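ok trying this again, last paste got cut off
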Amino acid sequence: MERTVTGVSYGVSGTTALGGVLSTNDMALIIGIVFTVLTFVISWLYHRRRERRELEQHEWSRQQHQLHMQLLRDRGSRFDQLVDQLRVGDPAGPDRHRGGEEAR
């Protein structure tokens, strides 16, 4: 409790001494500079967060696109395999000439 009271009394006496040395215009200037710096820091932090979030969203979208393309490639190769399997027994398919030659 004593430490708190001592800290507050030193803070108030320092502020009073500073108020006696500085004019009202000087204090307004210092307060304005402090708030300008605080506004800059807060704005910079939020901008950095937004950039990080956008970068994460871009990376997620890129990964989703890669997975989607892989799925399409896999479907295409499976489809080609099924078509090839169906063509083997197709009498109108490209194997009919070979089959016909072997039968002769």
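PB: full thing came through this time. Helices lie at 2-21, 24-88, 95-103.
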